[in-house]
Batch of 2 targets.
Target 1
Amino acid sequence: MLLSNMDLVVTAPAGVAKLRELILSLAVQGRLVPQDPADEPASKLLQTIQEQKARLIAKGKIRRNKAQAKIAQHEKPFALPPGWEWVRLGALLPFRIGKTPASEDPQYWDQEGYAWVSISDMAHLGEVFDTQRKLTARGAQAFGYEPLPVGTLIMSFKLTIGKISVLRVPAYHNEAIVSLMPLCGLVTDFLKYMLPTVSKTGVSKEALMGTTLNTQSLSNLLIALPPAVEQSRIVARVEELMRLCDTLEARGPLEAAQHARLVDTLLGTLSGSNTPQELSAHWQRVRTHFDLLFDRPEAVDALEQTLLQLAVRGLLVPQDPGEEPASGLLQKICAEKDRLIAAGQLRPDKALAPLQAQEAPFRAPPGWEWARFGDVAAITSGVILGRKAAISAPVLLPYLRVANVQRWHLNLSSVKQVVIDQSELERFQIVRGDLLITEGGNRDKVGRTAIWRDELPVCLHQNHVFRVRGTSPDWNPVWAELYLNSVPARAYFAAASKQTTNLASINMTQLRLCAFPVPPLVEQARIVSRVEALRSLCADLRQRLSASQTVQTHLAEALLESVAR
């Protein structure tokens, strides 16, 4: 059943990791390979091991274990297959806990010498070829025995429980690691796969993670022992299935990369459209494969960015020749701006050089115009922190900094306050409909734009956040937010900004010089409405994918649990 539903398992989040855990769990329970009645039972193997231990004790090679309690029925976490036996680790094989000589004493440590293993030197189910620290001959003497030979199995049992490796260099190890000496009839690789799983389950987990971690707690670790021949069959099957897991794990990133390339290619054809007719033709190709292409959140993100790019180029809604062209809108904006300056309600800005055709990032549709951003809106800087001038009428108010201004939204989870003079309130206060644009930070932060919608009763902005306010009633801040967060504007900010290592920033002059597309006013509203609908659809698609992924995870877990029973 598991193999027939493999795709369900491996495509679920962390599916392959859970599959590995299941394989090892089935292995230690004797459910991975069939039992053979002809195998010599584990009871005979235990007799052989006890005889070998007695000889080693008599020769002084190992110590005699303390008497251990009989295994009670309630300790046994599952029923054993025929031919298997329950045994405690202390009765099964000798083991040794390491130590750490005085860490800062140079007489024990050197750059060359005997390998000394800490947990950080170990790779789980891997091998140890070298260690970060080495012992001098004096340090090795502190252990009272020769280095552990190549092939020794070592396992962590403190802090990190059940990390296991094989020594490929003679070595000592620290007190958080135990070294194991397999005796006749014990397959080292079987112990390597079995012990980490046993150490994290049932009574054994309680023994390892109790208040005292010592020889006794390890000795009490409960082992389900198969016949010697079956141990080898289990190892062969585990390694076969682990290779399958390796293949499945490698296949996932490859498929993700192939999927990403396919999405990029097809979305690239959309972005390369120059007319609504071309876009329509390219969209049919994407539409045909929509379910295949947009079956993961990152693909939906790419789709949304492509749609935004198409929207600001005027390719998502039709143009209407009967509408007032943008040239008339610009005349009204300029006239209103001149009136406000004459009335003393707006400070005059330095005149900007006329926009050159080559500065426009794309060809505007009929009825559109290009303008300098500073010619269609008033841009101001904010309050400077840490000013030393005396304040006659101090008032403490919240202000926005770069961290508060994200693309498309404001993060107000942490808003700081600043003291200004009451007379400065009008200068630094932000009002509904104002655009907030970040000066910089890391490269992604440059030019981030969001609209203020009266989230707080009164709020200011810091000097690293520009405030942009329309000078005419015929100003659509949502259109401006849409364009400034789009690919063409972000490309301009990246090119115009002053950059250092992973940092970038723009000044007010660079922001005012930004080429800004101006569609007819009614068309701006149509584009904004269309974008809001499409972004909502993308959000719904992400939510459905998330729900589907959750269901898939539950199904995969249920399948794994049913197999593990």
Target 2
Amino acid sequence: MFKKILIANRGEIACRVIRTARAMGIGTVAIYSDADRNALHVEMADEAVHVGPAPANQSYIVIDNVLRAIRDSGAEAVHPGYGFLSENPKFAAALEEEGVAFIGPPKGAIEAMGDKITSKKLAKEAGVNTVPGVMGLIEDAEEAVRIASEIGYPVMLKASAGGGGKGMRIAWDDEEAREGFQSSKNEAASSFGDDRIFIEKFVTQPRHIEIQVLCDQHGNGIYLGERECSIQRRNQKVIEEAPSPFLDAETRARMGEQAVALAKAVGYTSAGTVEFIVDGDKNFYFLEMNTRLQVEHPVTELITGVDLVEQMIRVANGEPLTLRQEDVELNGWAIESRLYAEDPYRNFLPSIGRLTRYRPPEEAVTETAIVRNDTGVFEGGEISMYYDPMIAKLCTWAPSRSEAIEGMRVALDAFELEGIGHNLPFLSAVMDHPRFVSGDITTAFIGEEYPEGFAGAELEHTRLRKVAAAAAAMNRVAEIRRTRISGRMDNHERKVGTDWVVTAQGARFDVTIDADREGATVHFADGSIHRVASDWLPGQPLARLDVDGEPLVLKVGRITGGYRIRTRGADLRVHVHAPRQAELAALMPEKQAADTSKMLLCPMPGLIVKIDVEPGQEVQEGQPLCTVEAMKMENILRAERRAVVSKINAGPGDSLAVDDVIMEFE
């Protein structure tokens, strides 16, 4: 077995590999850029080697820099993680020349299946159904428009070397094809050092289901079930689960056998994933093969009990698989939620900054529930603009899908994260969405259910009443504490009342509280009653309560006259007043937001790539105004209505913060 391996990656996946290597008694070497000098993966590894400046194309994906780190550390093998160099055949070849083991597939398999164009041709030759498209490389935007028109809109423009949603655009007409070609090309060059683009038909209403395969160097290959990855936004997976709520055993077996056969046909070894598009009749079509470990691999590990990183290391060491296909059993259900540094209230635009609070739910393993959090950050750490916006992967397991969903709901509610915009509220909202709960999902789920973006969730009335009861009980605890403040004037004793008015989400609840040592009984004006028990104390940002025998987890912040409460995707301002205070509060005017209708504000921290207009120019609705790059993604900002540009405040190369004024209009 290897004595020392180098992880040619960063963040969450580097930490994940280090944990397994440590359990196997293998020493680890981390690499880091200037931006990651104090990163968690650097702290966890036994050694760490600097590989260059912050941009990935000057550090993590520079093969010579990584090879130098290998030589300096004396590592015997390299695990590439995902992204960066994980699917680069030149890197695998360079390691082979160095006499260093690559913990991944052979160079030939990467070349055959890692390139999306070549892999589709091979799949077609092997008799695998593929999505209609043009596998030849597209030279320029006009050729992209011509080919797209021939295939028929909508089409998908994809980077040949792409992954993780980078270098991908959906085009519905000629203009979008023209714009999408250039943006995809730019993103592909920046993220992968390879700007080749191809086009295929975009299949509407599909499910994205992938098969995990594992092959050794002795001709053995197995599949470890499937993963449902249909909850996607901008072609980036957001929530995954295993198994799929859609597949039956027969379809699963056919997909698995086909995936293994395809892997063996190209001499594949190590862990890999064959991705399929599946239609409503369970017809499946080969999409691509990821010749690496997938981001969502934990859900497969949770339902099979197989440590995929360990298996990759053992295969790279020349060991045969000890598992046979008949040994693979799918046990229970697992769900993964990807926590991203992106603001759901700003159309999921990237967010950067310092994590002023980072307290994940406690990881736990029991016979009936598992909570797992794979992460690469820490409280006080910084989310950089240079890399992928992923903060963590929160996973839950339970014997059934409904129990796994409920476990995820509670875990998301208990996840404390402050300092940056993040998608926790959106993840929570999805867990409660009727379509997701029923399993009736496609890759169009987010676009269909949130066509105007995410503006926060509204609690249904029953849960809102429980939150109101909890807020009233917590307010009583705070009031009791305030009565105990020392130094009061004589004859000014503060008494805690029993009658209160709770307002939240536009609703008013008149309540009366009876308290005892075990908790509080909250009586509502309509005669209903809620029993609340908790050990929460004022100042604690997380409240774990029991309401009528069921758990209720709330993130709590103090505001004037009440609390900011976040739960199940809702962000509530809950006021708790005495009856007379409530009468007066209802008369208070609301503060009006500033008028920014004649300004184009930067919606995210980022870099201006291009300005498309000039002062004095008249622009039409939907016309591109400028392009902003953030976290390796290009975002085109468009005019919301007809207007005349009066002033431009930024230019290409300028780095802007959120709400900086890019341009103004007459």
